[in-house]
Amino acid sequence: MTNAGSKQRRPINIQSLSLHYIKYNSIAPEAFQSLAQNLVSLAIFDSTDKPTLTGPKLDMLYKALKPLKNLKTLDLIIPEELEFDASYFENFPKLEALFLMLPNLLHLKNSKGFRSLTNLKGLTFANKLPYLPKSLVSLPHLEKLHFYSSSLSTFQNDTLSSFGPKLSGLDLSSNHIDKIPVGTFQKILKLEYLALSDNHLESPLCSPLHSSIDISGERNEDITIERDVHGKAETKNNNLTHLDLSDNEFKDGSLTKETFASCTSLTELFLDDNDLASLPGDMC
What we know:
mainly beta, Leucine-rich repeat, LRR (right-handed beta-alpha superhelix), elongated
C-alpha cells in the first residue's frame, strides 16, 4: 500500500536508446537493467579520439548488455584497438540488424558466435580483418552484408559461394581485393546489389560473374543455364541490377561486352575513377 500523497513510479518503457560520445568502458554493469523488457534498439558510439595500442577489455560493456535479450537492432562504434569476442552475440537471439564499426579490430575471437544470430537480416562490419569469417555464411536469413574498410584481399574455400539463399546485397568496398576467383558469386542466386568499389581489381570480371557449374539436378528460376560454343555449362545471374566497380585499376581493353554478359538484369553500372580513357563500342 502506498501513501495517498506519494506518486507511484511508472515502469520505464524506452524502446530505442542512442548514446553518442560516451566511453563504452565507463558503462556500469547494471546500466540497462531497468530497460531490459522493452528496449529493442541500442546504439553506442564511443567518444575516444585516439586509438590506444592496447584497447581496454569489453567486460563491463558485455555485462551491461547481457540483460537486453529483446534487442532487434544493435550499433557499436568503438575506435580503439581491441580484441572482440563474437560469442557474446549468443545473448541476442532476436537481433535482426547489427552495425559493428570496429576500425581497429585486428583479432576476432570465437567467430562461430555469429551463428547464433539466426534472425539477422542485415550486417555491417567494418574492421581490419584480412579474412571474411566463415561463420557468416551459415546465417539463414541474412539479406544484406556490408564488409568494408577491412584488409580483405582474397577469398578462401568458396566462402562467398556458400552464403544463404536470401542474400541480395553484398558490399565489399574499400578492401584490398585484386582478384576474384572463378565461381565466387555463382551460388548467391538472389544477389541484386554488388559493390566492389575502392579495391585493386584490374582483370576482367567475366569469369566470376559468368561461371562454369555442375548442372546436375539444378533447378532455380534465379539463374539461366546455357552452354557456350564449346558445350560448357554456364550460368547467368537474372537478379543483379546494381554493380559498382568504381575506384579500381581497370585499364583500356580490360572490359568488354562479354564481361557483363551474364548480368541480364543489370541496370546500374559504376566505373568511375578507373584508368579508362574510353569504352569499347560493343560493351553495352
